[in-house]
Amino acid sequence: MQVRDIMTKNPACAMPSDSLQSVAQKMIDCNCGLLPVVDSSMDNKLIGVITDRDIVCRVVAKGANCGVATVQDAMTTEKLWLVKPDDTVDTVIDDMEKGHIRRVPVVDDNRKVLGVVALADIAKTVDVGDKVAEVIIEVSQPTNIPRA
């Protein structure tokens, strides 16, 4: 099975200048914890990601003014884990385990955002038995990887 078979297609995206409040509301509306950050709404080229955790750890916990903070203040741009639509589900599972991540953007060869794969997508659609439990265990392990 390929990533294209399980990914959430055409996900909501954010831009660096978006307010954190609007992005948090978009996460609520879309029932998601990650938004790809793109360079413009026309190109949809991935330049980073923003997660609910990024907002909490990089802005809220530091006491920054959430009323003026933007996606640029909290987004992740380094060490992005990406997959292609033709990659296998095993590839995305391996990446999630290695990166201790729960969601992965799906991009084309030009980094245009096509979708997102989350652990929930794997759990709902892939008949892999203990493999899902293994991914959740591995992804949930604490790491010494700096987050900010």
What is the succession of H and E elements?
HEHEEHHHEEHH
How many β-strand stretches? 5
Main pleated-sheet profile: 3 strands, antiparallel
Strand content: 15-25%
- Overall pLDDT level: 87
Portion of residues within helices? 25-40%
What count of structural domains? 1
SS element count, helices? 7
Low-confidence stretches: none
What is the CATH topology?
Answer: CBS-domain
- Report the CATH C-level class: Alpha Beta
Question: What would you note in describing this structure?
Answer:
The termini are far apart. The chain has a 3-stranded antiparallel β-sheet. A two-stranded antiparallel ribbon has the order 2-3. It contains 7 helices and 5 strands; from the N terminus they run αβαββαααββαα. The longest helix is centred in the N-terminal third of the chain and has 11 residues, at 20-30. It has a single domain (3-139), classed as CBS-domain (Roll), CATH 3.10.580. The protein is an alpha+beta fold and 148 residues long. A hairpin with a 5-residue loop joins strand 4 (103-107) and strand 5 (113-118). Helix 5 runs parallel beside helix 7. The chain has helices at 3-6, 20-30, 52-60, 71-74, 89-99, 119-125, 130-139; strands at residues 8-9, 34-38, 46-51, 103-107, 113-118.
List keywords for this structure.
two-stranded antiparallel sheet, globular, CBS-domain, three-stranded antiparallel β-sheet, single chain, 148 residues, alpha+beta
